[in-house]
Amino acid sequence: MFKNLKRSTKKPTSILEEFTTSVITFQKLDVENAKFQKKFSSECQLGEWIIQLCCLIPIQIAVARNNLFQPLRDGLFSNDHVGLDDDGDDGYGLHVDGIANNISFGWYEGIFKHFGDKKIKVVSSMGEQSCGKSFMLNHLVGTTFDVSAMRCTEGVWMSLVNTKKYIYVALDFEGLKSLERTPQEDLFLTLFNTVVSDLILFKNQFAVNRDMSTMFQRFQGDATLFDSEIFQAKLCIIIKDVPSADREDIVREFMIKFSQLVSEEGEDNFISRMYKGGLEVIPWPMFNDASWFKTLSGVNKKLEKQEAKYENARTFLQNTKVTMAKLKVCKFYITSNEIIII
């Protein structure tokens, strides 16, 4: 049975080697026996169980519309929320604080406060539309983001995975370069991702094309809104569906093209400025390849080794909301070769 499971799903089954079964009739169960209860029953705190249940429900935290970055309050989009509209601007600092104070992440607010002293690691998935970003993130950390061959993600969605040592915040971003989004809106989403994440999984097709390199270079200009020290993320470029025979050549081609981009920009290039955690190119096997899950396990180890940017949940909440507020009040437009901030 297990051999058939491994062959049909291509999933690792080594854990099943220790799987055992036993059969007993209900009449022989001594459920009132104290030893039986101790051996076969389990206890859990109701509150902890409810928290784990709530973590299975993603919430939308922001969208990009009309060339603006719009934070949501409790997963809802409305201009009626105090502090989330553009009226009553008493100065940049006061306006940013007002917006940040009125951003809410719904039921996750209580979870962050409950685990206020726990370290936070943020992993995000981004890339082209309909290339399996949400599916990969779900398998990596155990989230339940919607998956579809068609466009199924708008804006930014958040989910949590609570472990003994960390809270993993998973951010699922909508696909870039779609017909529904302008370059400005893509820029907002990409910049937000870069600022808040520890590990960014950027899923891409086979080639580094001019559109992709231009996209990375553009949002470097808008990064002046933030202290450069905040950019600590590690960028993993994931190349989709690479046959095993082509992996080394694909990685070599990517690294050559990125090296050319870096050399053209000099010391202040977008890699060293925006991704101080480093850059890595990962050729990803096709889904029907048994090494798909092995590669996923390797990325999971990178996430475990990645140093946490946020010392506790309170810091994460405050910094993330301020970042969203800054992007909310930022207005700019893109010309053919530069970003102009208004």
From TrEMBL:
One Pfam family named in its UniProt record: GBP
Residue ranges occupied by any Guanylate-binding protein N-terminal domain in the UniProt entry: 116-210
What the entry lists under InterPro entries is as follows: Guanylate-bd_N, P-loop_NTPase
The GO terms this record gives for MF are: GTP binding; GTPase activity
| Name under which the protein is recorded | Guanylate-binding protein N-terminal domain-containing protein
Task: Tell me what organism the protein belongs to.
Answer: Rhizophagus irregularis
